[in-house]
Amino acid sequence: MSLSIGEVASRTGFAPSTLRYYESVGLVPSPNRVSGRRAYEETAVDRLQVIALARSLDFPLDDIRELLDGFPTATSASARWRAANRTRIAALEAQAADIERMLGLLRHLAEDCECGDLAACARVWTARREDA
Amino acid sequence: MSLSIGEVASRTGFAPSTLRYYESVGLVPSPNRVSGRRAYEETAVDRLQVIALARSLDFPLDDIRELLDGFPTATSASARWRAANRTRIAALEAQAADIERMLGLLRHLAEDCECGDLAACARVWTARREDA
DNA sequence: ATACGAGTTAAAGTTGACTTGAAGTCAAGT
DNA sequence: ACTTGACTTCAAGTCAACTTTAACTCGTAT
């Protein structure tokens, strides 16, 4: 049983135009056509859901493509791919830390802030980032 | 003591062109000019560091402006601003959850994945999102 | 038979967030 | 006097990621 572009769209939350675009840039494989129309396999939905998760975290399409194309199929997973993955994991961990800082600031503003001045209370949450 | 655009740039990590752009769109107030040049106060750096944090989380500029402009100055903080803030907090919490799911997937791929097929192991981390 | 809805392609348009380029100003150093 | 380096403005260019438009093709229901 195959799925129309509309069905895939509603299952994944992507617009049909987005699915065509993703195909055009090679992010998803080109599905068979049945009388001109795309006939997706169910597995396409799984791939797209990973893409949706990655996009929700603002992974660029090139990055997602690399992530998915280098997928460790049974054996492989190149050193290059593994290194890239470690980088991605580190970046996500840093991002999680940033979210916690931002949540700290927003909750402070929402609940009990009496600083009166942004500068006064902001430094608590914007401390750090002394590298390079 | 005031800061040149170059000093503010190196303290905040923004390019000078970005600082000018932020000023042009009203995200940061227009600093005094001393013989034509911008002379920033130190507090501008604090504001910009909050902006840097928000931008690192891909907050749109309009959102950041609203966040900063509605800052609870001693007394205020409109109901509208408070509501927007609750929304932002919820969005960040959801984003943190997405990061955890993605980290779960990436670590699985990096360490012990023997699924061989993306679809096979992806469903564990792409489950959820059954709303509306 | 024909109208409808959902699909098709290719090309052009949009948006947000910057960056770059051109042409000029200014203070300090040689 | 003049070069340098960091600045100025304003307009235009860039980039990723889509979306929109135009013109067309199907299969199905009336």
Q: How does the SSE layout of this entry go?
A:
Two copies of one chain form a homodimer.
Chain A: H1 5-12, H2 16-24, E1 32-34, E2 37-39, H3 42-56, H4 61-69, H5 79-111, H6 118-126
Antiparallel strand pairs in A: 1-2
Chain A binds a DNA duplex (30 and 30 nucleotides) through residues 4-6, 15-18, 20-21, 25, 33, 35-38, 55, 60-62.
Summed up:
The structure is a homodimer of 132-residue chains. By secondary structure, the first copy, chain A, is mainly alpha-helical. Chain A has helices at residues 5-12, 16-24, 42-56, 61-69, 79-111, 118-126, and strands spanning 32-34, 37-39.
Structure description:
The first copy, chain A, is mainly alpha-helical. Helices cover 63% and strands 5% of the residues of chain A. The first copy, chain A, has a two-stranded antiparallel sheet with strand order 1-2. In chain A, a hairpin with a 2-residue loop joins strand 1 (32-34) and strand 2. The interface between A and B is large, with 50 and 50 residues. Chain A binds a DNA duplex (30 and 30 nucleotides) through helix 2.
